[in-house]
Specification:
By secondary structure, this protein is mainly alpha-helical. The radius of gyration is 18 Å and the shape is elongated. The N and C termini lie far apart (36 Å). 0% of the residues are buried.
Length: 70
Amino acid sequence: MGLLDGAKDAFDENKDDLAERAKDAVNSNEERIDSAVDRAGDFANEKTGGRFEGQIEQGEGFVQDKTGNL
């Protein structure tokens, strides 16, 4: 048995619980995540000079549609 086999086994046993807890965290922090996505999009637009504004906004919308709906 390798060094990380125990950790892998522990993760495999609890991955459904971890996934559920992660979904709950995302759903309960929807406003904070959406705000962070907006700030990241603004930063990316600033750094690219607005050349990719449409794609950035599309990505923002995709992420924001997913938060709160997991």
